[in-house]
Amino acid sequence: MSNQELGSYLLMTHGEMHTNPKEKLQLILTQNQINSHDCKITFTYGYGYKTFLHISESGGHKGGNITIRFLVRAQSDAHLLLSSSPAPVEGQAVYEIVLGAGRNTFSDIRRLRRSSTKATARTRDLLSPVELRGFWVHFNGKGILQVGKEGDELPFLFWTDPDPIDIHYFSFCTWTGVVGKWLYACPIEKDTEKVEIVEPKPTTMTQKLRRNLLSNYDPYSLPVLQEDHHVSVLMYLNFHHVKLDVKRSVFSIDGTIPMHWIDDKIHWKPEDYGGLTSIHVTEHEVWIPEIVLHNAVGHGANILGHAGMTITSEGAIMWSPSTHLQVWCNFNLDQWPNDMQTCELHLGVWSQQDYVELLIAQNDSVMEDEQRTGSEWEVIKMESETVISQTPWKSNVDTSTSMPGTLIIRITVQRKSKSQNIVLMAPLIVLNVLITLSFWMTPTNSGKFSIQCLCLVLLAFFTFQNNEFFLGYRPFVLVLARCIPFELPGFCAITFTGQLLFSTTGYFDKLITILPDYLPSIPFEVLMYSWSMIAAMLSVLVSTLVIGISRYAHAAPPPNFLCTFITFQVTQSLLFLPQVNMEGSKTYNQLEENFNDVNESHSDVITQTSAPKHLQIQQYWIILATAIDHILCLIYLIFFVSILIK
After folding, report:
1. How far is the C-alpha of 95 from the C-alpha of 80, rounded, in Å?
2. Which end of the chain is least crowded, N or C, by CB within 10 Å?
3. Rounded mean pLDDT of 167-183?
4. For residue 130, which of 221, 202, 47 has the smallest C-alpha distance?
5. What is the pLDDT, as a whole number, of residue 145?
């Protein structure tokens, strides 16, 4: 604080401090020896106010005057928030006091969270990562906000708010990668110069060991005794749930990451502590690697959750934090739903990357049972490598001398597709078998046309209604738009029909909103349904032609080469064609029982020829129609079997 600022502050507060000397004493912390267990303790990690305390819990609330005394141990960026309501929304007026910001070089008073700075003071090395340091904050209700150090009468940071906030709640936090230990609401009986926190005497071997190991331990420095040594962190992956989001191209993992490393600064002889070989601590009390996910969806920091730690007498530390990882991944869906996908995790260290090496133990990484996780994916392979990579905060890396700083983990997963194959393939097989069998019905039987139309409608129904199994893909009319030119008249008809049908129900528009904007590849099962619909539509057109040929009363037989072909013995055996009755009547009546109706409707033609001759001509056309049906059945069968085999 400059001399000019200090003079302004004394002029501003002189009358108040001398007219009410008791309030002056409230600015000074006490000399009482206080047991730390008598204070309220909280730990914070990262930025974010999670617990809001009423101002009555501060221990210094008298009318409109508020005094908050606290002690904090943190490397930097200790945040205190004063607000009028619990959990204020973003943009709401608050007082945010930051101690040791900018790597412990300055302090701020802000009117909003992370912005609107009103007062700043240079405070180099204000905080400590190894010892608790005391501070006080005083707000008189008239807008004067003061921040001072334990034992100091004058503040090092102050500001007068012309529009004061009515303070009712306060909260603590730190910054990304910073652990903070806070003591507040300590019992104070009289006002003297200083507070002295007295740790309770250990009553058990565990407490004695914890005090001896951690009292002077710096959790922010590397756990090595020699500066040129590095730390190897061995990691495992325990997958609880794996998910792939096709629309967003996101690969998600929920699970735990057990870790193991050696801390050279922690050693003890078990015989000195009653044979105690291990103790349990929290992750805030010892050094932990600041692991980041470089290819994360988002910032990629603070990816590890909270968990207890176990320390052995040899200095081995075991930690198993939970994690939720999301990374970008390119998917190949050609073989869906029998597809296999490979995605990568790029793990690194936020700071101290030149001295920390990440390693993965592939054989000890597991995927939990499907009954417990409900995941449709199974991890079948995992590979890893460490590489030297550049980061936005570290460029021009010397690959000859630098230690690998990025651990790349390639995870291959396979879809559990048994149920999906059944749901997808069963309707397709049944409907195609029905279409194939319909070709063996007599050419003039209108039932075959009805069966094929019904199968076509059902194929369209299953194609659209199974969109959930199609991973949210667009309907087949849009899938085919990627692979068939629009110049095809038949395809234009299909596209127009599909859009017209589903736009009337709103279903088509709903699908458009949930599907990916770009389809790099089309699943083969989707193409099977699409091509089956086209084949079914062609079969309907051919059946219409066949029924027309067989029912129309022809005055002349087919061309000679066709008659020769359908009456050839080999052709009749291969295509199962009936024999031509040269005498005329009986065989024809067996081929078509309803020919009499056709004969009556075309009596003007029949009167021009003799009945036996006319019946023989019709037989040729009906046998030709039957041959077309059977040939088309063979082609359809070959097509269907070929796509099934593929």
Report:
1. 8
2. C
3. 88
4. 221
5. 94
Cβ contacts of 497 within 8 Å, gap of 6 or more: none
Which residues fall within 8 angstroms of residue 570, CB to CB, at 6 or more apart? none
| The two three-digit tokens of residue 332, written as one number | 């190949």
Q: What does the block give as tokens for 532?
A: 């089956």
- Cβ atoms of 209 and 266 closer than 8 Å: no
Grouping H, G, I as helix, E, B as strand and the rest as coil, residue 151 is coil
- State the pTM of this model: 0.60
Across 434-460, average pLDDT: 84
Q: How far is CA 479 from CA 52, 474, 483, 527, in A?
A: 53, 6, 7, 8
Decide which of 26 and 558 is more confident.
558
- From residue 56, alpha-carbon distances to 64, 86, 191 in Å are 12, 13, 19
Burial 483-507 (b: 16+ CB within 10 A, else e): ebeeeeeebeebbeebeeebeeeee
Query: Which segments of 49-148 does DSSP mark as H helices, in order?
Result: 101-104
Ramachandran angles phi, psi of 2, nearest 5°: -75, 165
Residue range 50-98, pLDDT digits in tens: 889 988 877 666 667 899 999 998 888 999 999 999 989 888 999 999 9
> What is the rounded CA–CA span in Å between residue 213 and residue 273?
12
Share of the chain above pLDDT 90, in %: 20
From CA 391, how far away is CA 350, in angstroms rounded?
A: 10
Enclosing H/E stretch for 203: none
More confident residue, 603 or 435: 435
**Counting Cβ atoms within 10 Å, is residue 629 exposed (0-12), middle (13-18) or buried (19+)?**
buried
Query: What DSSP string runs through 359-417?
Result: EE-GGG-EE--HHHH--SEEEEEEEEEEE---BTTB-S--TTTSPP-EEEEEEEEEE--
Q: Which of 190, 263, 207, 269 minimizes the C-alpha distance to 32?
A: 190
Cβ 439 vs Cβ 636: under 8 Å: yes
The closest of 352, 71, 315, 75 to 219, measured between CA atoms, is 75
Question: Is residue 345 within 8 Å of residue 255, measured between CB atoms?
Answer: no
The pairing of strands 95-100 and 309-312 is unpaired
Q: Between 82 and 219, whose confidence is greater?
A: 82
User: What's the CA angle centered on 236, arms 234 and 241, to 5 degrees?
Assistant: 155
Q: Given 3-state DSSP classes, what are the helix, strand and coil percentages for the chain, each rounded to the nearest 5?
A: 35, 25, 40
